[in-house]
Amino acid sequence: MPLKGIKTLVNDLNTLLASGRVILAIEKYYHPMVSLQKVFLPFTYMKALCFKDECQFINDMYDRQLDKVVDISAGNIFSFVSRRYDYQCSNWMPGSFVEFSIQLWENGKIINEQHTTLN
Questions:
Q1: What is the sign of the dihedral through the CA atoms of 47, 51, 52 and 54?
Q2: What pLDDT band is residue 62 in, cutting at 50, 70 and 90?
Q3: Rounded to whole angstroms, what are the CA distances from 5 to 24, 57, 60, 76?
Q4: Which structural domain range is residue 58 located in?
Q5: What is the value of pTM for the model shown?
Q6: Pick from 66, 56, 116: which is nearest to 86 by CA?
Q7: For every residue of 7-44, which 3-state class applies, written as one string?
Q8: First-last CA distance in the chain
Q9: Which domain CATH number covers 43?
Q10: What is the Cα gyration radius of the chain?
């Protein structure tokens, strides 16, 4: 996929996340055979399991907002995004974090994604 195409997809993905439509973002952009690794956790495989994990994560958060997209980089098959989030969660103290994610794309869908954070 051309560079402009991946960057356009990432911008749309960020728009969905900023508007709180995380589930729609998963439905729209995750490949059925996606592998996802959240911060220091084992990989989750398959879109259905990622969907289930993300629903649980969202249920634990009673306020998570994408504050801003810090940086975007895109190539022919990959993208890198850093985002700043503010959150309030039933399991943690309120705060903010910067999330770094790297996506590998296949036919307009994320086939592999890895996340790490800075607090």
A1: positive
A2: low
A3: 19, 29, 34, 8
A4: 3-118
A5: 0.78
A6: 66
A7: HHHHHHHHHHHHCCCHHHHHHHHEEEEEEEECCCCCCE
A8: 33
A9: 3.10.450.50
A10: 14
CA distance 41 to 53: 12
Q: How many domains does the chain have?
A: 1
Distance from CA of residue 95 to its chain's centroid? 19
One-letter amino acid for residue 91 of the chain: N
* Tokens 């996802």 belong to residue: 36
Structure token digits, residue 74: 């895109």
47-60 vs 22-29: helix crossing angle, rounded to 10: 170
User: Is 65 in contact with 85 (CB distance < 8 Å)?
Assistant: yes
CA distance 69 to 45: 26
Q: CA angle at residue 61 from 26 to 46, to 5 degrees?
A: 30
Helices (H) and strands (E) in the chain, counts: 3, 6
Which pLDDT tens digit goes with each residue over 30-55?
A: 998 888 887 777 767 676 766 676 66
